[in-house]
Write a structure and sequence with these properties.
Number of strands: 12
Structural class: alpha/beta
Distance between the termini: 83 Å
Helix content: 40-55%
Largest sheet: 7 strands, mixed
Order of helices and strands: HEEHEEHHHEHHHEEEHEHHEHEEHHH
Radius of gyration: 25 Å
Length: 357
């Protein structure tokens, strides 16, 4: 067998295994095809001060680009943790083995098998559970700790976050609920208000592919204000990577449970609750603090009042009054649909026109 055929067979072997079996890499310094294989894995771990990853090593880079770099500067954990090439960073090799074992414990031996289930009794994080009541602020601009929310719902100490060193506005990971493997998706309002950024979109897309390969049901805690906006978001290609994430969301065939925790606005919010996928297995419910729609009402009101320029809070009382008025209008419209045309309906129509005026 010549080298070309041998390489093709090796590439096919890797593709075949990645399609059907859990594959993770805990790496020391790797270069060339070894680095490519690590990136094709379902889960990649790097150890601080031990692991490095690059297409070509420092001597080749120095010859090609005249950059004089050591291994850490070229492809250490600071580089690949931030750009999303690795899923988990640890301090020791022993910790790497523990995380690898935990990751594999959530997955079947191959994609055609059922996910493993842990037999009870199931331990609940009672401390986080007690904090759930009143955890979510009503004011959209206030933050909270989403990890308390996650740990209060899943079995104790089972949440394994994936990709926690990049795309921090999006939280993804594997866990268990009553012993059953589930995939967790949530937003972190401490980073970019929890909006869907370019890096967050990349993380979400990669994670959804993992859940699809091994048919892991998804529990999604939705607090999504929409896509990240601004010049930096545009430069990073947020809408491009966000669009790819949305495509992956709607191509998902696994069961979903969406809990609207607070905000659910815009295209990104609608995609996270898969609003058009009514024919698939999908459970939706609203937390008492849930608030959803195409756009927050006050944002549209600011645009109308000040010609699209966001100003200070002097318009907040006006926005509050207008929001209440709009809610009254909606209720009147719903009532009018249920009533025959009578004098009362005529009076309600007059009141509606008066409010609009």
């Amino acid at each position: 067998m010549d080298h070309q055929v041998e390489d093709q067979c090796y590439h096919y072997w890797i593709w075949k295994h990645l399609m059907y079996r859990p594959y993770q890499d805990s790496i020391r310094p790797v270069v060339g095809f070894g680095s490519g294989r690590a990136m094709l894995s379902h889960f990649t771990i790097m150890v601080k001060k031990i692991s490095q990853l690059f297409v070509a090593g420092p001597p080749v880079v120095k010859y090609a680009t005249h950059e004089d770099l050591n291994k850490e500067q070229l492809g250490g954990v600071d580089i690949h943790g931030e750009n999303g090439s690795v899923d988990y960073i640890v301090n020791t090799e022993q910790e790497a083995f523990q995380i690898a074992a935990k990751f594999l414990s959530y997955l079947p031996s191959n994609a055609n098998s059922s996910n493993p289930t842990k037999v009870g009794p199931y331990d609940i994080d009672t401390e986080s559970l007690e904090l759930l009541d009143g955890l979510i602020p009503i004011e959209r601009r206030e933050i909270y700790d989403p990890y308390i929310l996650i740990n209060g719902v899943v079995d104790r100490d089972t949440f394994l976050e994936i990709g926690n060193s990049y795309g921090n506005s999006m939280i993804v990971g594997l866990s268990r609920i009553k012993g059953c493997t589930v995939a967790i998706i949530a937003q972190n309002p401490a980073y970019f208000g929890g909006s869907l950024t370019a890096k967050g979109s990349e993380k979400l897309t990669r994670f959804l592919k993992l859940t699809e390969t091994f048919q892991i049901p998804i529990v999604s805690f939705v607090d999504m204000p929409g896509f990240a906006v601004g010049s930096i978001a545009e430069q990073q290609g947020t809408i491009k990577y966000g669009g790819e994430a949305i495509i992956q969301l709607y191509q998902s065939t696994v069961p979903w449970a969406s809990i609207i925790v607070r905000r659910c606005f815009g295209v990104a919010g609608g995609a996270l609750v898969r609003v058009f996928e009514l024919d698939k297995v999908h459970f939706r419910c609203g937390w008492p603090s849930g608030d959803w729609g195409s756009l927050p009402i006050e944002v549209g009101l600011i645009s109308m009042v000040d010609g699209g320029t966001i100003v200070d809070d002097q318009y907040f009382p006006t926005m509050l009054i207008l929001r209440c008025t709009l809610l009254i209008l909606i209720q009147l419209l719903l009532l009018m649909q249920l009533m025959p045309f009578t004098i009362l309906k005529g009076l309600m129509l007059f009141l509606l026109l008066l409010l609009l005026w």
